[in-house]
Amino acid sequence: MPAKGFLSQEQQKKLQKELKKQEHAEVRERILILLLLNDGKTQREIANFLGCSLRKIAYWCVHDDPENLESLKDKRMSGNHHKATEEYIDLLLKIVDQDPEELGYEFGRWTAKRLATYLNEKTGIKLSSSQIRRILAKKKYVYLWAKYSLEDKQDPEKRKLLKKKLEEYISISKEKPKLLQIWFWDESGFSLRVLRRKLWGKKGSRKKITGQRRKGRVNVTGAVRYSDKKRVVDFVPKGDGNNFYLTLKVLYQEVKNEWIQQCHASEDFESKGTKILVILDNASCHKKEDILNKIEGEMPNLVLEFLPTYSPDYNIAELVWHSAKEFLAHRLFKSVEQLEFLLHRLLNQGELIINWDRKLKNKGNFISAI
Questions:
Q1: Considering the entire predicted model, what is its pTM?
Q2: Which DSSP helix (H) or strand (E) runs through 50?
Q3: In angstroms, rounded to a whole number, what is the distance separating the alpha carbons of residues 163 and 169?
């Protein structure tokens, strides 16, 4: 049995480093045996600590070689994919990141079986799909849902310019909150059909929720103030230009009333009052010429800043709708009125708790306006 302190300082560092990065639990256990022996622990103490047999400790006390880490492995660790050469693995990693359509296939994604078939044709090495999965797992690949991306439709230059403008607006609104307010505007809809989301359940079973298709929908439109996350949300029959104008007028009046409550004269609002910057998307109802003219004529303190196309990730109002839908998930409402009543409490009366620091996946992007 090796004596206490039999490892040199260099050997200890080498084993400690290998302990952190080693994939095989058995090898990590054998490294621990060497390190514990070096600390002066007895074989029985090590066996009790690791929860294994004394015979196992005795075997690896003799067969472990700190100078040769390969001695810590056994034949089983070579795996069933030993037929895969380095060239085979390199080709696999290259192909798995490539679109199958580029190689003339009609399917849109690679499965382990399709990869095994393709590589068999190219290399003559035949592996099973499970062997392919093990190779990919060892190379830190996982099989995940792909996310939608809008990058191919976005204009990077316009997004960069908008981001710079947003930073300037936010800086001004923080330094001079009485001079400028920033509001993020958006529309959304909530259906009577039950919203399905992930939920906890025992492994091997899946909870059931009602799948009734029910007619009925609540349309909401409104804005979120950047500084304090105050919300002004209205319920509308549909998202058209007229309802956009009417809700915008409610927002304008809300800000004006706040200004008046600060001991200012109502008639001075247009000349001395807060400027209202509304950031919104390019929906057709937002850009009707007659509506824009009415806004300009009746709400002179209000400025519309349109987002670049396909850039919902710059709109924090998306977080409000998403959080509301998470709250409503798996609930069955008997009527539109019941749904609207709860939404009013959530959206306008502050009952909806929102994590504003979260990164929300939204149509291929992350909310990044905050």
A1: 0.64
A2: helix 43-50
A3: 10
pLDDT digits (tens, 9 = 90+) for 259-305: 999 989 999 999 999 999 999 999 999 999 999 999 999 999 999 99
pLDDT for 195 equals: 79
* Cβ contact 81:127 at 8 Å: yes
Among 16, 88, 230, which residue's Cα sits nearest to residue 8?
Answer: 16
Confidence of residue 360 (pLDDT cuts 50, 70, 90): low
Domains of the chain as residue ranges with CATH: 9-78 (no CATH), 86-138 (no CATH), 155-195+210-366 (3.30.420.10)
What residue type is assigned to position 196 of the chain?
Answer: R
CA–CA separation, 348 vs 343, rounded Å? 8
Q: What CA–CA distance (Å, rounded) separates 16 from 114?
A: 40
Reference 312, options 265, 238, 363; nearest CA is: 363
Q: How is residue 293 written in tokens? A: 């003219």
Q: Check: CB of residue 313 under 8 Å from CB of residue 180.
A: no
- Lookup result for tokens 């849902």: 145
SS3 136: helix
CA distances from 26 to 21, 22, 146, 184, 257 (A): 13, 9, 34, 55, 70
Q: How many CA atoms lie within 13 A of 284 on its CB side?
A: 1
pLDDT single digits (tens) 117-158:
999 999 999 999 999 999 998 888 888 766 667 777 888 899
Q: Which residues contact 74 (CB under 8 A, 6 or more apart)?
A: 26
Q: At what angle do helices 25-38 and 9-21 cross, to 10 degrees?
A: 150
Please, what sign has the CA dihedral across residues 28, 33, 39, 45?
positive
Query: In 3-state terms, what secondary structure has residue 176?
Result: coil
**Cross-strand partners of 142:** none
The per-residue pLDDT for range 223-243, each reduced to its tens digit, is 999 999 999 999 999 889 999
Determine the Cα–Cα distance for residues 4 and 2; give it in Å rounded to an integer. Answer: 7
